[in-house]
Amino acid sequence: MKARAAVAALLIAATYGPSAYADPDDYVALPGVEYGERELELRFGTATKSGEDRASAASLAFGYGLTPWWATEVYAKYNRSGSEATRFDAIEWENKFEIGEPGQYFVDMGFLVELEWANDRAEGYELRIGPLFQKDFGLVQTNFNFLLERHFRSDEHEVTELGYQWQVKYRWRPEFEFGLQGFGDVGKWNDWDPHDVQTHTVGPAIFGKFPLGGQQVFKYNAAVLFKASSAAADRTLRAQLEYEF
Amino acid sequence: MTVRLLVAAYALLGVTAVLAAGEPEFAITLRDHQFTPAEIRIPAGVKVKLVVDNQDAGPEEFDSHALNREKVIPGKTKATIFIGPLAPGRYPFIGEFNATTARGEVVAQ
Fold first, then answer.
1. Fold type of domain A2-25+34-244
2. For a surface tag, which of A179, A210, A240, B63 has the fewest beta carbons within 10 Å of its beta carbon?
3. What is the dihedral of CA A84, A88, A93, A98, to 10 degrees?
4. Is A15 helix (H, G, I), strand (E, B) or coil?
């Protein structure tokens, strides 16, 4: 029965085109920009799903706040499937634009533009864009992002897909905040996949920041995500470490 | 019909006036890695605008976990920081690059 369901899911996925499943090391982008700040960033994620090989991904990045409203970051991305060797996956160029000042409007806003060059030329280029939102309620911070993703010049059918990211956190102390994070993909932006093909994950997350003196700061956030739909990975562990200077 | 138009125009003018009025503004100066005044009293329940004038040569980061604000201010420039509406209370902030001397508090009352 399970095998039949898996085959059906594969057939549906093939019919509806490649899904923009979030990488296991994906993170919730925030709308803010810190002008003049440089950062080294390490992201890591690993996902398990019964009957499938473990999928892992890691990224190393350098970022810079070019202007008070524009931050740019370049990632070298790696991935690994099952017991295969770790392989270089892609170069990603991320640009984040802050719209207005935090607290100026009812909701803080930004806009994300990511361009990825895959090492495997058959995957073509990937463009991911979308608005970033943040709203604070006292010590509770909420974020929600809609992201559109499309592959160009790839061997597979090119469709524009819709994903989302969200988090709610309680800003208890600078060194330790806690809350929930969620990620999901619904398929083609204007013709969503059936629910059993969509991927939705949710789980507890922790966050924190340690000043290291002067302009140096260490930040972290990590989450354990559980599947909220049958097509999603059973469990995903993801983490992001940032050294700002 | 005319009355409705007048009401709509009045409402529009009212909204425009509110938007144009803006938020109450409070000035803070940063010199020799110290904030002046170090205590800023603002009305509770109202969004306000802090204008921080960094008169030092180097950059400083206005940082407040309580206010959830982080803003780098280059040397010899001003920055605008929106905060609130806040519940009555004290909200500390620091200049993160010189945290031992650059310290202050927003007091909402």
1. Porin (2.40.160)
2. A210
3. 40
4. helix
* Ordered structural domains, chain B, with CATH: 23-108 (2.60.40.420)
**Residue B70 pLDDT class (50, 70, 90 cuts):** very high
* Over residues A61-79, mean pLDDT: 97
Q: Which residues 121-160 of chain A have a CB within 8 Å of chain B?
A: 136, 138, 141
Other Cβ atoms closer than 10 A to B12: 10
Q: Which residues of A touch B80 (CB under 8 A)?
A: 101
Strand order across the beta sheet in which B34-36 lies = B34-36, B25-31, B48-54, B77-83
**Which residues of chain B make contact with A34, given a CB cutoff of 8 A?**
61, 70-72
Task: Specify the pTM.
Answer: 0.86
Task: Determine the Cα–Cα distance for residues A133 and A143; give it in Å rounded to an integer.
Answer: 6
Q: What percent of chain A has pLDDT over 70?
A: 91
Picking from A32, A35, A104, the nearest residue to B82 by CB comes out as A104
Helices within chain A (DSSP H only): 2-16
Sign, CA dihedral A187-A193-A199-A202, equals positive
Q: Which of residues 27-56 of B touch A (CB under 8 A)?
A: 47
Q: Are A235 and A47 in contact (CB under 8 A)?
A: yes
Give the pLDDT of residue B21: 52
Q: Between B68, B97, B99, which is nearest A171 by CB?
A: B68
Convert the pLDDT of each residue in A85-95 to its tens digit: 999 999 999 99
What contacts A104, CB < 8 A, 6 or more positions away? B82
**Structure tokens belonging to residue A35:** 């002008």
B95 in contact with A at a CB cutoff of 8 Å?
Answer: no
At A123, is the pLDDT very low, low, confident or very high (cuts 50, 70, 90)? confident
pLDDT tens profile A162-197: 999 999 999 999 999 999 999 999 999 999 999 999
Q: Is the pLDDT of residue A51 over 80?
A: yes
